[in-house]
Each structure stands twice: as C-alpha cells, then as structure tokens.
Amino acid sequence: MDFTKHNLVCELSFIPPFHWEALLAFFASHATAGVETISHGEYSRTVALSGTHGWFTAALTDSRSSLRIEASPSLSPVFPLLLSHIQQLFDLSADPTVITAALGSLAKGYPGLRIPGGFDPFELTVRAILGQQISVKAATTVAGRFSAAFGKPAAPPIPGLTYYFPDAATVAALTVDQVASLGIIASRTRTIIGVAQAVASGDLSLKPGSDPIETMARMRAIPGIGEWTAQYVAMRALGWADAFPHTDLILCRALGEKNPKGVLALADQWRPWRAYAALHLWANYNSSLGAKL
C-alpha cells in the first residue's frame, strides 16, 4: 500500500520468534468493521489519542525481526504515545524464549505466539461485553454497528477505515434505548454504559500496567461483568501475562475438563504465563478442527 512521503515511519523491534500470521488471524476474526482492517499481511486502524485523530498501519519487515509502522502526520504530537499503544497491541516486549521454556510442549505448535492486545482498552472492553454468549462473528458485526452509530467519521487513505471508535465519555452519555436500538439486549446495554461511566469518571482504569487484581475486582462489581470478561480484559487490555479465563468453553474442551475450577487447577502449572497458555490452547484446539486461531 503506497502512502505519501510525509507520513510518520519507524520500525519497532522485538525478540524473535514472532508469529505474526497467527496474530493477524486473531485480529482479522475480531476486527471492528470501520475501525480496523487486515489486508495483505498488514494491520491498519483509525486512531484517537488525547484528542488527536489519525491512522496507522503495521507490517512485518522482511527480516522478520521488526514491524514497520506508518502513521498519519496528524499523529505527530502524540507519536511516542502511539508507539506505546502499538507495543502493547502486538505484545512486542514479550520474550518468547522465557515463555516457551515455561510452557514446554504446549508452545511447540505456535512458536512466538503473542497476546493480541487492545489498542484502546475501553474499545476492547466494549467488544468483550458485546461478545458475551454470542459468536465471535456476531459480536464483530454488532461492534461495527456500534462504532458506526456512535463514533466520529474518519477518512484515511486506507479502504475499510471509516470510523473512530467512540470514547468512554461519549458512550457514558448514551441512553439504554439508543444502544439497544442496535440489537443489543438491554442488560448488556446497561453493562456497556456502566463501564463507560466508570471509565469516564476515573473509577475504573483500564490502562496497561494497572493492577490487574484490583481492576478485575472493580469490573466484577459492575452488573453484567463476570469472570470471563474480567480475565479477558486483563489479558488483552491490561497485558497481564497471568490472566486466564478459566470459564471459557474452548479452554474447558481443550483441557478435557468440564468444571472451571478444575481448569483453573490444571492451569496452575503455567504460572505466571497463563495468558500465553490460554492462547496456545485456543490455537491448538482450533487447529485440531481445521480452523484458524
């Protein structure tokens, strides 16, 4: 994809191996229409940071030891902040040699598997709530409607990017009827607005580096947030390497254990890297069914 010479360009390095293809496959299946797009080995999305708007695209370099980042010139005032969000999104600070040694044979099938982070923690949390008890495809469709209905329009030079995801303050001001009009059940609508109000007021911090135990406790206090959502957000938004959504149906099947408490007990062997264990269990299970990550 060709852009103008005035764009911001840099490379972000990481410790190989890095399973870029598996990471892109995950993002492709969970992408919010209009906000994110994956095409020809590249990830692209709209960006709203500290009142500044733009876009960026990321692709693996030929050396497979870094990502090439290209961003709109409008993001120049927040470029260091943008890069920190990208680092978290692609889990670039992970050391796969340490993680693989801890996970043993579980990690052999997908060397260099990374946590698919959340560029915008609030956006990811809304997406997780929308995904409760429905298929990934259905949740992705609704998330696209959500961004189109309440997000600001965008017009970057990248096909498929048309909206900025609405921020917490915008969603906090919505009514239940407004959100429910998109086909979202009332209870889930109230949960989304409740999370938005907590984030907008500062009662809930979803920033990477926030204390995961405290954050999950605050999340579970919001009606409609259960253990799966709290752990999933801790994994992807907070970047907590030891998060483990033990009530997840696929993890139960992958471990041959119906009782979530039994799943949690089995996962204890992978501490403090249980989030990576969950990713490998998902990947291995989907591979056994002939599906992508």
DSSP strand count: 5
Q: What proportion strand?
A: 5-15%
Low-confidence stretches: none
Helix count, DSSP H or I runs of 4 or more residues? 13
| First and last CA, distance | 25 Å
How is the main sheet built?
5 strands, antiparallel
Q: In summary, what is this structure?
A:
The chain is α+β, with helices and mostly antiparallel strands.
How would you portray this structure in words?
- With 293 residues, the protein is α+β, with helices and mostly antiparallel strands.
- Helix content is 44%, strand content 11%.
- The chain has helices at residues 20-30, 79-89, 96-103, 121-130, 136-150, 168-172, 176-180, 186-201, 212-220, 227-236, 249-255, 260-267, 274-288; strands at residues 8-13, 36-39, 42-49, 52-60, 66-71.
- A five-stranded antiparallel β-sheet has the order 1-5-4-3-2, with helices on one face.
- The radius of gyration is 19 Å and the shape is globular.
- It starts with 7 loop residues before the first strand and ends in a 5-residue tail after the last helix.
- The model has no long low-confidence stretch (mean pLDDT 95).
